[in-house]
Design brief:
Blueprint (H helix, E strand, L loop, with lengths): L2 E5 L25 H10 L4 E5 L5 H13 L3 E6 L8 H8 L5 E4 L18 H9 L3 E4 L6 H10 L5 E3 L15 H9 L4 E5 L12 H15 L4 E3 L12 H11 L5 H16 L4
Parallel strand pairs: 1-2, 2-3, 3-4, 4-5, 5-6, 6-7, 7-8
Length: 276
């Protein structure tokens, strides 16, 4: 099964996408299942992981409802308010849905790079693990040190680093990110998503701009722990769905067919425990 392991839907009328403003003209409209399905059919992608785009419980419930209505949505990565007194209870309630497969706080938007390390969050991470969910780490390079500490504290937590932790591709910077991602890859329970990279590149990016970063992710996480995703529709700020698929296939073309199948679907099925 081919899986797009990172995509979003939203309806502007919901009013809880604070980051989504008219200045982002290319994506400032509704994006719903009927908009994505033609691309999935064109590229023989049989399922997706729908990922939160708003820091509200209401949006997570919205996504879970979409998963009930659309068979191609194989799992939902939702959101809970880690700082709310009833966070664990809320997480447990949401986990009653068979469609919930992960939790993602919007760490990249939080100024405190050590936010995730607060002792009061330990019961929440324990609950993520107890409910057999994945922790989607939406981090930037400056968060990787704290993420390393977090995973060290919770060695049985299944985690995935979204978008390769958004390296500074447009600036051609690899120092620091290379070392930190190598350290993170040492944890066998940590995966990494090959997604969201084009929006970190310069507007006139080429495959060659992405190659060093993808090569390092392949070297460290390997074909068994690297997971492909589109980050659609956010990716359309820098590339169409078609171009990102074509770019990914080109960059990964030197891998064996088995390794490509793993990255384009099997690894996501394993991590998120997708069975159909």
């Amino acid at each position: 099964m081919r899986i797009d392991a990172h995509q979003h839907f939203w309806s502007l009328a919901r009013g809880d996408y604070g980051w989504l403003t008219p200045e982002l003209a290319a994506i400032y409209r509704d994006f719903l299942p009927e908009d994505l399905e033609p691309f999935l059919k064109k590229w023989n992608i049989e399922g997706t992981i729908l990922v939160q785009a708003a820091p509200t419980i209401a949006e997570t419930k919205f996504m879970l409802k979409l998963a009930e209505q659309n068979a191609f949505i194989k799992g939902v990565v939702g959101w809970v308010d880690f700082e709310a007194p009833g966070a664990v209870d809320t997480l447990n309630q949401l986990s009653m849905s068979p469609h919930l497969v992960g939790i993602r706080p919007m760490i990249q938007d939080i100024p405190d790079v050590n936010w995730m390390l607060q002792d009061r969050f330990t019961p929440i991470f324990d609950a993520i693990r107890a409910n057999d969910l994945v922790f989607d780490a939406l981090t930037l390079p400056q968060h990787l040190s704290a993420l390393h500490t977090l995973v060290s504290r919770h060695p049985s937590l299944r985690a995935v680093i979204d978008h390769g932790s958004k390296p500074l591709i447009a600036d051609g910077i690899v120092d620091g990110w290379v070392e930190d991602m190598t350290t993170m890859a040492a944890f066998e329970n940590v995966h990494c998503k090959l997604s969201g990279m084009v929006t970190e590149a310069s507007p006139d990016w080429t495959n060659a701009d992405l190659q060093p970063y993808v090569a390092h992710l392949l070297k460290t996480f390997g074909p068994k722990r690297l997971i492909w995703g589109s980050d659609w529709p956010v990716c359309t700020l820098a590339a169409s769905y078609d171009r990102w698929v074509e770019t990914s296939r080109d960059i990964l073309s030197t891998l064996t067919p088995e390794e490509q199948k793993a990255i384009f679907g099997l690894n996501a099925m394993h991590l998120y425990k997708i069975r159909n």
